[in-house]
Amino acid sequence: MGGKPQKKPFPWHIPVFLAPAVLIYTLVMILPLAETLRLSFFQRDPVSQASFYVGFANYARLFFDPFWVGPFFNALGNNLYFFVIHMLVQNPIGILIAALLSMTHLPGKKFYRTAIFLPTLLSFVVVGFVWKLMLSPLWGVSKDMMSSVGLGHLFMPFLGKEETALTTLSLISVWQFVGIPMMLIYAALLSIPDEVIEAAECDGVTGLSQFFKIKLPLILPTVGIISILTFVGNFNAFDLIYTTQGPLAGPNFSTDLLGTILYRTFYGQQTQPGDPNMGAAIATVMFFIILAGVAVYLFVIQRKLTRYEM
Amino acid sequence: MKTALRGALLAATVLAACGPAVAEDVTLTIESWRNDDLSIWQETIIPAFEAKHPGIKLVFAPVAPTQYNAALNAKLEGGTAGDLITCRPFDGSLDLYAKGYLAKLNDLPALENFSEVARSAWTTDDGSATFCVPMAAVIHGFIYNKDAFAEVGVEVPTTQAEFMDVLAKLKDEGSYVPMAMGTLDQWEAATMAYQNIGPMYWKGEEGRKALIAGTAKMTDPEWVKPLEVIAGWKPYLGDGFEAQAYADSQNLFTLGRAAIFPAGSWEISGFKRDADFELGAFPPPLPAAGDKCYISDHNDIAIGLNAASPNADAARTFLEWMGTKEFAELYSNSLPGFFSLSSHEITLDDPLANEFVSWRKSCDSTIRSAAQILSRGTPNLWSQMWGVAANVVNGTQSPADAAAEMQAGLAAWYEPQKN
Questions:
Q1: Of A97, A282, A286, B361, which has fewest CB within 10 angstroms of its CB?
Q2: B15-136+299-361 belongs to which CATH class?
Q3: What residues have CB less than 8 Å from B330, skipping those under 6 apart?
Q4: CATH 3.40.190.10 spans which residues of chain B?
Q5: A67: which chain B residues are within 8 Å (Cβ-Cβ)?
Q6: B300-315 confidence digits (pLDDT tens)
Q7: What is the average pLDDT score of chain A?
């Protein structure tokens, strides 16, 4: 009676439980990001190697020096094309395969599911090398395979032509990663309750129209997540191009992505010495491009998606 | 196995340093990236030197090529680097000299045995100081399948016209791909094609120096013509050469499916191992009969003296020995395709290597045009050359446009070319 009002003790458990994640995330994500940003405001003296502050000079070069603008926007354009191919090919095919797999009476379902997902687990190096060999005009099997179905006249050195190289690489990447949208959508389709489907069937909504009117709206949020994963993955892509076409992203830079131009700038190439400061500027621009994409998704698209309680 | 080898090496070092040797024995350590050559040094070169110079012991201590620059820099900064430093060509070593890690060697009599071109890769821009003793160069030319030439009935060409004629005959006959070269990796087009035949047109050193001095431009006819020549190779390359990588070209040739391989002499040992047909070589064809002959004899490797070495006298004795005919023959014979840069007339046991090195007598040597000074800026001329040379062979860029692109890149940063 008459004691002081009990002060609520500080909720220590909250910082304690947050600490590991915050610490690790700061250490491996936020610090490197901040360091990259800092690096991009400096430049090194070629002789003494001393670092000095240059403000936005690196960015100014990137956006106004003709020797940087051309390659940079070429890479950005190629990257957009790379992304568009993924959105138009990888995700629809992923949805299609998932829809087929979720049919109740499909024989060999498990086999297809594993086989289609398997390439996702392979290393880029393996995928790049295997496809490079298959498409090789010298030793590859693709010429004979195309001839056997009457398409032999369409064969060309796909990876060596400016017109076809980027599309070919995009499709190789689609082949490798189609398993991810397939798995996510497959899981989403399985989580649609049977009652919803049964109710639709009672109302006479079956087959294709059932898929488009009932299932597709229910899995749209998953499609959104997949799109954003694809976007982030594509704008960070580098390995496949590097393993098949080398750091110069030939022919004539037609397969140059932001990742490869960053690599060439940062680490150098043959007698061209690396320029970590310019590389950091490119990396920062890449970060903001991806950030902008994700922000558009989070604040515009995701809010318009209707979520249904199931 | 590797540990055992290392252990043995360590034991050898320790023994050499404090074992049975006389107290005055000096041990010199050679820093190198040529770990492929370890056995050649241990079994051939070092015994030959030690036999002549009792009292000096040598240890060859290579690291992996990709780690060499970083490891060497760290050791030099920490003061733990060996007495003798294997020098990369051009800016890599120039940088070390500028920082004071390599000693100036102008007073070394052995340097007289090397031509100015040979020394150019390890000499300051103004020519005032030389800081490494040149060791070896690689020579460009064409390696051909002798059996294929005999079968199709063509002779080794000496002029550009004859060369195109041979290519046309090989193509008409049809059993061989006339020339094994691809453009996927781009560097084949720049190195094996443009830098291979180019010196004939830009007259070797004369043209290269004019470019550095700013009195010639990449758009001048002598620099555009070789691009036109390699553009003419397109019909004679294999099907789908646009997607053919360097290793594909090598295989295509060693499997006996192609007749001619535009080559560098470093291919010799690999080709001799893999090919089961008779190999021959011919120098780049002359633009016209009677023209003077120029070859790309590109400096690749040298050895310099660590400025902080406590055993400088002994190290100079070794560098002096590197200028002798004995070293030149030992080295060139152990590593066919890597030719000593000294002016001594040497004989090689390997006939193919001998053929390559014999061109030095009738032709003037030069180095790759973009190697010295011209690749220091952004855009990098050497990288640009890869891209445009590949475009020209692919037929997607005209030789004139390609030359204009390189000239524009050079003019963007290189003072003597700005105007």
A1: B361
A2: alpha beta
A3: B44, B45, B48
A4: 15-136+299-361, 139-296+368-417
A5: 378-379, 409, 412
A6: 899 999 999 999 999 9
A7: 90
Is there a contact between B242 and A161 if contact means CB atoms under 8 Å apart?
yes
User: Do the beta carbons of residue A246 and residue A70 sit within 8 Å?
Assistant: no
Sequence-distant (≥ 6) Cβ neighbours of residue A139 within 8 angstroms: A133, B248
Interface test with B, best of A131, A138, A248, A254 (most B CBs within 10 A): A138
Q: Identify the residue whose tokens are 């568009």.
A: A84
* pLDDT score recorded for residue A138: 87
Q: How many helices (H) and strands (E) does chain A have?
A: 17, 4
Architecture of the domain whose range is B139-296+368-417 = 3-Layer(aba) Sandwich (3.40)
- CA B125 from centroid of its chain's CA atoms: 20
Residues of A in contact with B91 (CB under 8 A): 271
The structural domains of chain A, ordered by start, are 54-304 (1.10.3720.10)
Instruction: Please judge whether B243 and A137 are an interchain contact, meaning their C-beta atoms are less than 8 angstroms apart.
Output: yes
Task: Tell whether the model's pLDDT for residue B249 goes beyond 70.
Answer: yes
Inter-chain CB proximity A248 and B186 less than 8 Å: yes
Q: Do A270 and B380 touch (CB under 8 A)?
A: yes
In whole angstroms, give the CA distance from residue B186 to residue A248.
8
Give the tens place of pLDDT for each residue, B160-204: 999 999 999 999 999 999 999 999 989 899 999 999 999 999 999
d(CA B29, CA B271): 33
Q: Name which of B302, B304, B312 is nearest B28 in CA terms.
A: B312
> Which of B77, B376, B383 has the most A C-beta neighbours within 10 Å, making it the best mutation to test the interface with A?
B383
Chain B residues with a Cβ under 8 Å from any Cβ in chain A:
90-91, 98, 182-187, 238-245, 248, 251-252, 370-371, 375, 378-380, 382-383, 386-387, 390-391, 394, 396-397, 409, 412
Q: Quick one: closest CA in A to B94, which residue?
A: A47
Q: How many helices (H) and strands (E) does chain B have?
A: 19, 10
Q: What is the pLDDT of residue B273?
A: 86
Write the DSSP assignment of A167-215 as a string of letters: HHHHHHHHHHHTHHHHHHHHHHHHTS-HHHHHHHHHTT--HHHHIIIII
Is the model's pLDDT at B393 over the cut of 70?
A: yes
Rounded CA-CA distance B184/A178 in Å is 27
What is the per-residue pLDDT for B7? 53
Q: Both tokens of residue B24? A: 């005055």
Closest approach of A51 to chain B, Cα-based (Å) = 17
- CB-CB under 8 Å, A248 with B387: yes
pLDDT band at residue B73 using 50, 70 and 90 as cut-offs: confident
For residue A18, is pLDDT > 80? yes
User: Any chain B CB within 8 A of the CB of A104?
Assistant: no
Output the six-digit token pair for B72: 């060497």
CB contact under 8 Å between B241 and A162, yes or no, is no
Q: Which residue has the tokens 């050649």?
A: B40
Range A106-109 contact pairs with CB under 8 angstroms and sequence separation of 24 or more: none
- CA distance, residue B92 to nearest chain A CA (Å): 9
| Residues 6+ away with beta carbon under 8 Å from B34 | B62, B65, B86, B301
Cβ neighbour number for residue B290 with a 10 Å cutoff = 7
- Amino acid in position B311: N
Q: Is the ipTM of this complex over 0.90?
A: no
